[in-house]
Write a structure and sequence with these properties.
The chain is α/β, with parallel strands linked by helices. The protein is 41% helix and 15% strand. The protein has a single domain (9-244), classed as Rossmann fold (3-Layer(aba) Sandwich), CATH 3.40.50. It is globular, with a radius of gyration of 17 Å.
Length: 251
Amino acid sequence: MILEKFDLSGKIALVTGANTGLGQGMCLALAQAGARVAGAARRGCEETAALMPPGSFHAILADLLGPGAHETILAEALARYGRIDILVNNAGIIRRDDIADFTERDWDDVMQVNLKALFLLSQAAARQMIAQQSGGKIINIASLLSFQGGIRVPSYAASKSGVRGLTMEMANELAPHGIQVNAIAPGYMVTNNTELLRADPVRSRQILERIPAGRWGNPGDLAGACVFLASAASDYVTGITLPVDGGWLAR
């Protein structure tokens, strides 16, 4: 049966940035599909935990800006569940300023969380998946700016372009181990990262006028893509970056 391919019963998922927004929505989607979820965040995940089915969620407190956070996250997930089948690299930050005024600190912080920590956690998870000898799924959260340049977000655009490239590179190397690596590129979503844009009436109107769907996305809009890429339904899909953008890139 085709629906059985989407069943994640018995699978263990690790999701970063799990305390709010897209990460929270993907935690819930994975759990509803049957997975148990370790959710990592730099702040508490009480709100996420309250939404999850009983016994399906374990919170991990860690800040990916800090050194060695990827090791702490994976070690705690393994201590709790004993294995890792699915990794969702969702954690990300954004800093906005004109090119002429953009600081080295803002560049380094964004690249650390959005790209370097993503690679290190993927590397550690891949080692574990290879040792388990049962394949796995790595899902990176990219962006529309993996395809476009954006404005006033140089480090974010660079990091998310890097996520797309790294997704393809890891897919090439890990396919022989039965590990699929893909990315989701969310469109303009109602998250903390877009709060300033949504609060600007002119910019918000400009964005909405370009989205064929006519609305901002919400965390639930990623549920189907996330479960698909985490499940056996996508076993012959690897190296892609899937836009979930209400048609933005088609405009």
